[in-house]
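Problem statement: downstream parser choked on a complex file, so we are re-checking the raw output for the pyridoxal-5'-phosphate run. The parser issue turned out to be on our end (a line-ending mismatch), but while we're here, posting the original submission so the record is complete.
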Amino acid sequence: MSGVRVRQDFLIFGAPRLPEEAIAAVVETLRSGWLGTGPRVAAFEEAFARYLGAPHAVAVGSCTAALHLALKILGVGPGDEVVTTPLTFAATANVIVHTGARPVFADVDERTGNLDPEAVAAVITPRTRAIIVVHYAGRPCPMDRFRDLAERHGLFLIEDAAHALEAWYRGRKIGTWGDMAAFSFYPTKSLTTGEGGMLATARSEWAERARVLRLHGLSRDAWKRYSEEGAIDYEVVEPGFKYNMTDIQAAMGLAQMSYLERWLERRARLWTLYQEGLRDLPGLILPPEATEGVHARHLYTIRVDPGEAPFDRDRLARWLHQARIGTGIHYKALHLHPFYQQAYGYRRGMFPRAERISDQTLSLPLTAHMEEEDVLYVVEVMRALWRGEAVG
Ligand SMILES: Cc1ncc(COP(=O)(O)O)c(C=O)c1O
């Protein structure tokens, strides 16, 4: 018999914390008469660019859209190769496929989960056009090394900063190191707009092109056509996408900007409680700190070493679920998925470090929405499971 009392409500993985201002801002927008891309998107972009210290930020419908636009704007297409990590969400590599280029994976640093610059260097060919790094779990990549590598080989450097809004590396915000950077405002992210994303860049012509491409390739967006600013005509200057953000989303995002650091501190406190509560469990590998800079603490990823722990990752996930705790897997490595195997001949054995993480990793709930007792409950359940007790 277990001594743990199973909680009533399910601990949702990635539940966001929304300040009341964000809810009020959405309601105000709904009443304003303008729901589409307009003044609130412009204000959100300005606040976001200021927060990052980036000259330009262009709001879009998702991080996936931002990554796709980045590759399009940099001219990546058929015959090109783009190097990225297999330890990421499908979107990072799928967008490479959508441009007609080939996704080329390189292995990760097993401690940080980030792309290994040496592994990247080893797969660069004359066809390589760009590198997409992912700041895995919020831990900043060694961006000086990636910058050097990109410059040496004449490659574009793109940051998938979906996990890393609050991260820094060597005194500079993550998202300002690459030629372009993409952020996500998906519901599990530290700032959410329901769905949404941002493309950041220092180059004004790239930002301008992104503004055109995000809305069908029109020379003039709807706000410029229908508001008092406006001439109502427009021209299609290239076949763009439907990747714009709405004012409803932007109002929600803008209202969260002033909370980012507060919520990061809160996640840091919860992180420490996990570290203290779990550190002595055999076969459990806890997530490392950032090697350098500021960790955005987006994901708390543990690893279960099946040789040392009393059970494997999948069984742990099932038991935690029975104890009403939601978890996530970040990630099943992309080269193990059928599409990437069938289309490009990837197979198990090619990226052993990413594979070990893929097989052993489990993300425990960590958001600013959580209370300390939520973390203490997860710790209590984990400790009971390690003692061999059934919970749930
Ligand atoms: C590393 C990474 N890249 C890209 C994305 C895609 O973001 P979005 O859902 O905003 O398109 C995600 C989403 O979770 C992600 O974690």
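For whoever reads this later: The mean pLDDT is 96.
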